[in-house]
Specification:
Porin_Gram-ve; Porin; two-stranded antiparallel sheet; signal; eight-stranded antiparallel sheet; Outer membrane protein F; mainly beta
């Protein structure tokens, strides 16, 4: 089975995605004991200028909210961070901020697991154009992850994963989409 709420279409340690360094995190389960299944988290991301602009970030913040009940779950998350001067000067990517948001739904009961994630980034998904060797951040990406699994009573599970990419409408968007896939 894939991890809950996936993350398979993104880099790790990229602003707020995956295992990230330099963050302070607060998580709360069951909303202070008042609402079963309602969870939230907030994060502060400290400025981090590494040797590579592709792995650096400015100060930022993020938050997530999830609710689970009777085998169903829903989650949403948002993060925004300042970009470094080197990132703003990169060949690709515009703007002073990097933003990421995602939402997901799941059903996990009766030997069936179904999940769907949708997320977007703005100036937060790094890539290198293999033709020109220029690098930077895609102005916008859209990521979809769909998972279906059936757990057989005698042990094994059948898992199917699908990660379609929406078709960009311009040549520049197409090049960015091609070189930003993971």
């Amino acid at each position: 089975m894939l991890p809950e709420f996936g993350g398979d279409t993104a880099y790790s340690d990229n602003f707020f995605v995956g295992r990230v360094g330099g963050v302070a995190t607060y998580r709360n389960s069951n909303f202070f004991g008042l609402v079963d299944g309602l969870n939230f988290g907030v994060q502060y991301l400290g400025k981090n200028e590494r040797d590579s602009a592709n792995r650096s970030n400015g100060d930022g913040w993020g938050a997530s909210l999830s609710y689970e009940f009777e085998g169903f779950g829903i989650v949403g998350a948002y993060g925004a961070a300042d970009r470094t001067n080197a990132q703003e000067a990169a060949f690709y990517g515009n703007g002073e901020k990097a933003e990421q948001w995602a939402t997901g739904l799941k059903y996990d009961a009766n030997n069936i697991y179904l999940a769907a994630n949708y997320g977007e980034t703005r100036n937060a998904t790094r890539f290198t154009n293999g033709l020109t060797n220029n690098s930077g951040f895609a102005n916008k990406t859209q990521d979809i992850l769909l998972v279906a699994q059936y757990q057989f009573d005698f042990g094994p599970a059948s898992v199917h994963r699908f990660t379609p990419s929406p078709k960009p409408k311009t040549l520049k968007a197409w090049v960015a989409k091609i070189w930003s896939t993971t």
